[in-house]
Amino acid sequence: MVTKRRAGMSDAENEAHREGAPPKEAQLLAACHAGDCARARELVEQGAEIFVTDETGRTALHFAAASGSAETVRFVLEAGIPWNALDVGNYTAGDYAEAGDHSEAYDELVQAGVRAEMVLRMLNKEPATGAAANEDYLSQPVEYSGDKLVDAEKNGVMMSWEAPLMELHAQTICPAPGGAVLNVGFGMGIIDTALQGQQPGKHVIVEAHPDVYQHMKDEGWDSKPNVHIVFGRWQDKLDEIRALGPYDGIFFDTFGEFYKDLADFHQAVFAPVDGAVPLLRRPGGIYSFFNGLGGDHKLFHDVYCDIVSADLRGLGVDTQFARVASDVVMDEETWKGVKRPYWMIKNYNLPTCTWAPADDDRS
Ligand SMILES: C[S@@+](CC[C@H](N)C(=O)[O-])C[C@H]1O[C@@H](n2cnc3c(N)ncnc32)[C@H](O)[C@@H]1O
């Protein structure tokens, strides 16, 4: 899983892989690989099966993406191959487009992903599916071991390789001393330590796990003069969090929660449904969150970035992603002692969310 083979294909390799496929389907994959949309369409009209893969699980979409032809990618998507199909090497079609530097083909895939996820969301309007996972996590012990914090199943809750990112998040939400900041999720206290360095006037930390809360007290966080700890799930503590606000800077980074929880938090930060005041000060407040969305595949991640900024836009928020190049090598060593790597992407998209100008005017 960690050491992936590179997404790419040589002609010779492809010929070999296509040998086993039935003639029409082999021709279809070849047409896709050549970016010959007209020929691919013709073959499908003549009855070629689009849902064919080669022996390494590559679909017509992987071949079309490798060709760089956005038109062929669009055709294959319309013919029914899902945007998020994986080959046996765990590669998306996006990986093939990226390997060939085909940005137009890549964008087609991202847009298809965004459309599909939006439709799915409309169909699945059900209550927080994440609650059970989060409650399971909170009821079991966690373990600190120097460079990481893991849950009972050795899932990485927080790891020290994220420290440079936390430093940037702290500078983003607290660019000057004296303001009021809110951080949801203490973990290893990396961002809270960085925030203390920025000298906020008030520093509120929300943490729900009893072991983490104990760790905070052991480290003396409860006696720092400008720090207020709110112990409990943020969902259950909104009144208390609100009473300590509004905040000039807010950061969100929890564990065992789902996109729905993040979206609910955004609602509380920017547009509470119950008519309460937003947690973020208006105007001028800055919000950011740990952007690990879809972090094990670049294509999935890019789709989520588009979705989250569209959702935030709907709340009157402008989101800018700063691309942070990471020099952390993501290999077996990085993830030693952790069940599953949760981040496999080269660049980190650090979100800065502010009130969109039209909303600023309303203040
Ligand atoms: C990824 S860690 C945060 C790491 C932190 N940003 C740092 O710099 O070390 C996530 C933290 O959120 C806490 N948490 C999980 N669910 C929560 C919830 N619903 N409300 C508040 N805290 C929660 C976890 O116990 C954990 O300490």
Automatic annotation (TrEMBL):
GO terms for cellular component: cytoplasm; nucleus. Its main location: cytoplasm. Keywords: ANK repeat, Cytoplasm, Methyltransferase, Nucleus, S-adenosyl-L-methionine, Transferase. Pfam families: Ank_2. It comes from the Eukaryota. Gene3D superfamilies: Ankyrin repeat-containing domain, Vaccinia Virus protein VP39. Residues 128-363 form the RMT2 domain. It is found in: Cytoplasm; Nucleus. GO terms for molecular function: protein arginine N5-methyltransferase activity. GO terms for biological process: methylation. Its EC number is 2.1.1.-. Transmembrane segments: none annotated. SUPFAM superfamilies: Ankyrin repeat, S-adenosyl-L-methionine-dependent methyltransferases. InterPro entries: Ankyrin_rpt (IPR002110), Ankyrin_rpt-contain_sf (IPR036770), Arginine_N-MeTrfase_2 (IPR017408), RMT2/GAMT_Mtase (IPR051038), RMT2_dom (IPR026480), SAM-dependent_MTases_sf (IPR029063). PROSITE patterns: ANK_REP_REGION, ANK_REPEAT, SAM_RMT2. Residues 1-21 are annotated as: Disordered. It is an enzyme of class 2 (transferase). ANK repeats lie at residues 56-88. S-adenosyl-L-methionine-dependent protein-arginine N-methyltransferase that methylates the delta-nitrogen atom of arginine residues to form N5-methylarginine (type IV) in target proteins. Monomethylates ribosomal protein L12. Monomer. Belongs to the class I-like SAM-binding methyltransferase superfamily. RMT2 methyltransferase family. This is Arginine N-methyltransferase 2. It comes from Coemansia biformis.
